[in-house]
Amino acid sequence: MENDKCDLILPNGVKEKQIEEIDGYIVKYHANKNTIWSKGKVENGQPTGYWEWFRPDGTIKRSGYFENGEPIGEWTTYNRQGDKHKTTYKRPL
């Protein structure tokens, strides 16, 4: 297995997510390596544009937008069935 495909254990014991780049999107996987934890674009080391986070069972958990690494606009949290649970709004700093 290639090193960039392995989970890394950080000095504090936290397991770093497996990361891939697919069609310009950064995709991070849950520890099970089978389901996506998050996906979105990164520019200059900062998240940008639309991002999504998922539960280990593959259902969407949260989504929203970044600009210059900061959350902006509408952010949605979803229930375990994938239905909208809550919407919040983030203003740029």
Mean pLDDT: 84
Radius of gyration: 14 Å
The secondary-structure class comes to mainly beta
Q: What are the segments in which pLDDT stays under 50 over at least 5 consecutive residues?
A: 1-8
Helix and strand pattern: EEEEEEEEE
Largest sheet: 7 strands, antiparallel
N-to-C span: 42 Å
Categorize the overall geometry: flat
Tally of separate helices: 0
Task: Tell me the helix content.
Answer: under 10%
Q: Strand content of the residues, in percent?
A: over 45%
Please tally the β strands and state the result. 9
Strand order of the largest sheet: 3-4-5-6-7-8-9
Describe this structure in words.
This protein is mainly beta and 93 residues long. Helices cover 0% and strands 59% of the residues. It has strands at 8-9, 15-16, 18-22, 25-29, 36-43, 46-54, 60-67, 70-78, 84-90. It has a seven-stranded antiparallel beta sheet with strand order 3-4-5-6-7-8-9, with no helix packed on it. Strands 1-2 form a two-stranded antiparallel sheet.
Short description:
The strands form two sheets. The protein has a seven-stranded antiparallel beta sheet, with no helix packed on it. Strands 1-2 form a two-stranded antiparallel ribbon. 0% of the residues lie in helices and 59% in strands.
Search tags:
93 residues, seven-stranded antiparallel sheet, 59% strand, disordered N terminus
Per-chain topology:
Elements: E1 8-9, E2 15-16, E3 18-22, E4 25-29, E5 36-43, E6 46-54, E7 60-67, E8 70-78, E9 84-90
Antiparallel strand pairs: 1-2, 3-4, 4-5, 5-6, 6-7, 7-8, 8-9
